Amino acid sequence: MNKPNDLLCHVDADDIDCNDSPNEHFNTILNARLSRRSLLRGSFASAATAVLGATGLSACGGDNGPPDPVPPVSPAPAPEKLLAFGAVSKSLADTVVVPAGYTATVLYALGDPLSATTPAFRNDGTDSDFEQRAGDHHDGMEFFGLTAAGTPSTSSSDRGLLAINHEATTDEQLSSFFLHPTGGTTTLPRPAAEVDKEVALHGVAVVEVKKSGSAWQYVKESSFNRRLTALSDMELSGPARGNALLVTKHSPTGVRTRGTLNNCGTGKTPWGTFLTGEENWSGYFARGAADDAARGNDKSVVALKRYGRSQGARSRHGWETGGSDDKYARWNNSKLGASANGSDDYRNEMNGMGYIVEIDPYDKSRAARKRTGLGRFAHESAAFSVPAAGQPLAVYMGDDSRNEYIYKWVSAAAWSAQDAAPADRLATGDKYLDNGKLYVAKLNADGSGQWIELSLANAAIAAYAAYKFADQGDVMVNARLAADAVGATKMDRPEWCSVNPKNGEVYYTLTNNSNRTVNPSGSSQLAPDSANPRAYTDMKGASAQNGNPNGHILRLKEGAGAAQATSFTWDVYLFGAEASADAGKVNLSNLTADQDFSSPDGLAFSPYTGICWIQTDDGAYTDVTNCMMLAAIPGQVGDGGKVTLNYAQASGATLAVDTFVGKKAAPDTLKRFLVGPVGSEITGIAETPDGKTMFVNIQHPGENTSQANLADPSKYTSQWPGNAGYGAGKRPRSATIVITKNDGGRIGS
Predict the structure, then answer these.
(1) DSSP letters of 559-604?
(2) Starting at the edge strand that comes first in sequence, how are the strands of the sheet with 102-109 ordered?
(3) Are 87 and 595 in contact (CB under 8 A)?
(4) Which contiguous run of DSSP H or E holds residue 33?
């Protein structure tokens, strides 16, 4: 997801749905469905693929209502084969490739108008009004059903709302060059018009989609359509609301802020709202070269450095130079005013970014709320534990940067089934997301782990010498420092996470880490450990990629107490690797050519089929294939065994690392389902409740194009989706695609 601070990055910087009706509990129905299927059966077909074309969807057929529970007196239906498709081959083509028998069509792309009065997108850099258009870099996404009357529905599969993150823009130097007529300004100061356009391209969109006949389309004139940008008004809620660290010129009481930024992963609450994670937000702020002294070298300097803003740091786009207006000044994070509390400048502005943000997709009149109780860091997705009446809810999260941590929030309130369809959805969010406990994970070498509470009641936090926490709000705002204090396990960039609806186990993608090394030097380098066990060299042509360049997927099984457990067991579900890599130290999951992948990022379980969908954001393997999406049928924690990796150190000693590897992949448990266009990341996944329609995002195709080649489309590394017949111009565009099965069946079966 637009990753700073790693070897694969182009930037220099650091869901389970629930039944909300009084009917039988969703998980009871789901487990019955899953148990009556032969989850580990599928066909190992040869790779036969279908390529995205310029036309609409093939006929879907079938009904659009929710699948009915099997009547107890009826015989069980024949088991549904999962992963019953031919594995897609690796591809370097500038197109979207899906299996034979499936059709993929572009639905909603950068610049598409979201109102009846907004003109069609010209895609030549002259477009404006992005507050009423699709933003850029489509990322995490969730589907929210609508009835024919336009009311919320958990069962509608032919009409709904897509809530979509618009994470960032494709840029070189300072400018988002594809979005300006001649590439934009690459020196400071930046023109106000360019800054305004780029700010509006970030954030979130809510867009109505519906099926008409057999084809899906987005509804340009829908009253539900909504954009939230990096300037939209937001409420701060939870333990840090009103905290001294959130006081700014814009909000002297520290209860509001403007905008959501670098939105990456998502979540869907059991009460029907959308959660979006703010990821690499710190790089958007500038900080003066003498700011440490201006702040009196106080503890705020420690916090700023921990979150990637040392004094003298330049911002990613130079938005602070757009003019004297307050909307530009806010991007300068320096102490410029004379006040003691920051109410006359934006020294604390960055503290208003880095949260899980809750949005009611059905009600555009309600301001979004930043849930400070879930901690402040580089958030990806937010995955809920399987709701159980009378038990707290857990929300699992990861901090996407090298050597960062895995977190869990546990609500103080116990789940009530009545809250599945509340009159006030954001007030329900207050109930479950503002009061509770935040934990960080420590993973042990024996396959066990602990959740450590981040609280001033923890002596390690209260007495932490590197940073003096003032109160619990301070702990939430500076969760990374609190996690440092308790000695949490530093991970290989925790990205998306998801909960297996069949057994409640939690899966985390660990995308990669160039800072793993057998001979660490300096504080940023780490030796391999049990949960992050690989340190190796992966050659990309003549280029050596060191560390853990291919990433892995970790999974956790909670101990006694389920969501509120303070202990767990873990193993590594899959290791990313090339099929030809060393099976003893790299390809530990025994991946074949139909399964090999690198840099897992997006991950989500299908609520209907239980398939685990894995998406990649890779640069290590892109000389062989574009990024991809795979379908998997996982087992459970402990279904494999212990492996010891032995590393020869420079000292002559041997470093022995024990790790726990899940059952090796088989042809019927892991298959490549999709490969994207050149330069793209595959991200964002949502399904309709019947499992027959899937929405996937294609982010930043053509991102490695040089701004110097803007005038010559033949030199773009991608021309997608224009080359698939969608929209005007040849400049590449991030987009949402819709995938259906030609026989009208469920995706993946």
Answers:
(1) -TTGGG-SEEEEEEEEE-B-TTS-TTTT-TT---TTT-B--EEEEE
(2) 102-109, 735-741, 693-699, 681-687
(3) yes
(4) helix 26-35
Distance CA 318, CA 286 (A): 8
Note whether 532 and 576 are within 8 A (CB).
no
DSSP letter (8 states) at residue 196: H
Strands 233-237 and 368-371: parallel
**Contact, 570 vs 552, CB < 8 A?**
no
Q: Report the pLDDT value the prediction gives residue 214, as an integer from 0 to 100.
A: 87
Cα angle value 360/363/367 (rounded, 5°): 65
Q: pTM (2 decimals)?
A: 0.91
Over the Cα atoms of the chain, what is R_g?
24
Q: Which conformational region is residue 638 in: left (phi greater than 0), alpha (psi within -120 to 50 degrees), or beta?
A: left
Residue 17 pLDDT: 30
Look up tokens 């402990």; give the residue.
Answer: 638
Three-class DSSP category at 735: strand
Mean pLDDT of 711-730: 98
First to last CA, the chain: 29
Distances (CA, A) of 285 to 167, 237, 311, 332: 16, 23, 11, 6
Distance CA 531, CA 511 (A): 13
- Report pLDDT digits (tens) over 470-517: 999 999 999 999 999 999 999 999 999 999 999 999 999 999 999 999
CA 588 to chain centre: 26
Number of C-beta neighbours around residue 151 at 10 A: 10
Q: Using an 8 Å Cβ cutoff, are 452 and 488 in contact?
A: yes
H or E element that contains 442: strand 436-443
